[in-house]
Amino acid sequence: MARIKDASVEAVKAAAEIQPLVEDYVRLRKAGSTYKGLCPFHQERTPSFTVSPARGTFKCFGCGEGGDAIAFVEKIEQVDFPGAIELLARRFGVELEYEEASPELEGRRRRDERLRTLLDRAAVFYARVLWDSEQGAGARAYLEGRGLGDDVCRDFRLGYATGGASLARRALQEGYSQDDLLAVGLVNRRGNDYFQRRIVFPLADARGRVRGFQARKLHEDDPLQAKYVNSPESELFRKGDLLYGLDTSRQAIAREDRAVVVEGNTDVLALRQAGFAPVVASMGTALTEAQLRELARLTKRLFLCFDADAAGQEATLRGMELAVRQGFSVRVVSLPPGTDPADDPAAFQERLAAPVSYPVHRVRLEHARATDRASAFAAIRAFLTSLPDSPEHLEAIRVAADLLDLPPETQAGLAPARGSSRTAGVVSPRLLDAGRRLERAVLAGVAAHESLRPLLAELGPEHFDDELYRRGRAYLLGAEAADDELTALAAELNAVADDEEITVETGEQLLLRLRERRLQRELAEADDAHLVDLQQALLRVRESIRQFA
Q: How buried is residue 343: exposed, middle or buried, by Cβ count under 10 Å (0-12/13-18/19+)?
């Protein structure tokens, strides 16, 4: 690639602002003079990623990544220094100048720019045909019949392909070659336009650059039977890399900390028109690793909205499983058969308010498609025992127990394979979550204040239910060496202590609360010989807690 002139590099450095740049990828919230969010470079539950606008830097105290705007782009986009400079120049409107390079490299760079410009010019051409020509009247009527107004259709740059070689002729007049048109899938081998008499949806990447198109069938005599046809796969276009509407929904997804994934492009248009912003479309395919990587930069909360049939297809389930494995919280909104969000956006938003977790969805699905009770139990058990223990898992066990009418002793067989004394019906998700929060807060207080470590040492590992937090206790007391898991936990604990402003006094109270919980459990199982001593110990702890009130 041709070398970027030093003056251009300096101009980019001067123009690049770290906060709005990072907010293109990460949901941030103000914390004093800095901003905090979930790190896009490693999985975490509590924010340890900090952005300092004054310094123009970012830093993650969990994984250690840090640097300026250029370093951020290099890491998150997986590009080298020149690539990062070019991305930042486009983002902040800086025109770059290049020094002379080898003819081959310069030719490749210019060709890439030429093809990207051609795709953008094609989107402009299709849009003009739709809105400014008589040939686009039928397409305009179709969109109006679907309840889609001009404003949202123009915002998303919808167009109309007339057929024949109208686009090809215009592109050739503007100096593009037949090879250029073939390279980006705008013509076929006979030289005719690839899309014929169809509504055209430009498909853009996360930064809004047109990569290809999807065209919707309008006429019954269309020689192509498929309702939707995509651009051919090419060096610039891979359908599995893109999510429709992501370029215009990034800020809403980051701000609301959720992404709603629907099937079709028109669903995105209808919902956006109704004022619902954090929505993208998978364009009828299962979620891919590339798509999930883009979403993970903005949120870890997914709401997947498919009709009842699609939600049970194997490809769709694989996408859900992939999202769960990558640390997403997945909720499923199943729509009535034959309907989609575009039919009634208001009703869709009501359904969105009552989603089900992926484990519950999967249990219901496995039960519905099983041929008998025995096969249903086998399928559900195989699924549930593969999951880690969680509130969603416990909820799914209860749903399975109701659907299969299982006795308590059989329900235990649905617990996680790694062996846990907790079974369905014993600990509610809410109490389980509260218990883990207490254990985490105790460790966060000790991590922030070394003076609390002797008090932690007085509490044995049996005071902690979570195995990771037991290891965290040992680590804070110097009894266990750091590894990747404990290093990540330490960063999380520091962030929790900062976010929740845990003081020494608060830490002492949390330690007492954990001791109180343990005594309550011992009392529930105590024999007469130990009952009085435990009651007195519990009274002393509660009296100490009251002193903080």
A: middle
